[in-house]
Design brief:
Layout: H1 3-10, H2 16-27, E1 35-37, H3 38-47, H4 50-63, E2 66-68, H5 75-83, H6 88-99, E3 104-106, H7 110-114, E4 122-124, H8 126-136
Parallel strand pairs: 1-2, 3-4
């Protein structure tokens, strides 16, 4: 999941679908693999006040989220996503997903959503991902 999902779920102006998604993932921890590049953790940490950040960290710990350092991502892969028009941070997230062969990135980011057809993974908004989950259970 992109940082905006955590910010919408734990932030001051919650997005109902993001809250619902994280609530569901929290209840069904172990049923889904959550992977995060350090960049996402840092962005969420920067943008949430300490009490809300503690809640988010508790969520990651409960769900067994895997947090990876960006060093595992080949620089050439990041560069290729920058050449497709993604900003630096978004290119890093896209390269991370591609490198780890992540099948779905949950994000409300319009830059990702605009490129969805040319990415090696699916980009779904939280509401769309909730529909996918409900069909698979």
């Amino acid at each position: 999941m992109d940082s905006n999902e955590y910010l919408f779920a734990f932030g001051f102006e919650p997005l109902d679908e993001s809250v619902e998604l994280l609530t569901l993932l929290g209840r069904r921890h172990g049923a889904f693999n959550i992977h995060l590049p350090r960049l996402v953790v840092d962005e969420v940490t920067r943008n949430l006040p300490a009490p809300l950040m503690k809640e988010c960290h508790r969520f990651w710990k409960t769900c067994g989220a895997v947090i990876d350092e960006e060093e595992i991502i080949p620089l050439g892969t990041i560069k290729s996503f920058r050449e497709r028009g993604l900003k630096s941070g978004d290119a890093t997230i896209a390269a991370y997903c591609a490198h780890l062969k992540i099948r779905i990135l949950v994000s409300e980011n319009r830059d990702f959503l605009a490129l969805t057809k040319s990415l090696p993974f699916r980009v779904l908004k939280s509401a769309e991902f909730l529909k996918v989950i409900s069909r698979s259970t």
